[in-house]
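If I may wish for something, please walk me through the protein I am sending here so I can picture the backbone:
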Amino acid sequence: MAQARISAKANEGRFCRSSSMADRSSRLLESLDQLELRVEALREAATAIEQEKEILLEMIHSIQNSQDMRQISDGEREELNLTANRLMGRTLTVEVSVETIRNPQQQESLKHATKIIDEVVTKFLDDLGNAKSHLMSLYSACSSEVPPGPVDQKFQSIVIGCALEDQKKIKRRLETLLRNIDNSDKAIKLLEHSKGAGAKVLQQNTDSKFN
């Protein structure tokens, strides 16, 4: 009888210890789950800052190369460029880096996708129109919506092999490049228009001298 009581107490002690360990493990797991949410929130916030930095630099660059900037006095342009350069310098002091975890296959896919985009970029000066069409097909390959134009199927399969974060970055880069091409195209058209208007005025002045 005494032996049975001792055995029962020992079993009860083991049960209490096991129950306590299970509770402790559950609390630790819950804490780690909460920390995981905070880690993901941190990465998302850092990524948002990265994107905001890119947007700010693009906007400053766009203002510096805008048609309005060309149509003001040299003194005003110099003053505005000084302000723009100051803002760009302050923006560049913000350093945020979010590293993407990749397996070897994803690393290779990213390298291949980057190479394809870089090759298109090098052709900008030679043939802007064709480069834009090629970029549009690359961008369509990254879109989840029904594309308005042709899709580069080969590029699409490469992008699918990239990490999800890299897929988003590739799409953002293509969006930026397409915006830059549109801005360049508009600037060229405005420049050609101003030259054409200037030539027309010059011709009218020349004609009036001989009439």
Remarks:
- The two ends are 135 Å apart (CA to CA).
- Residues 17 and 164 are 44 Å apart (CA to CA).
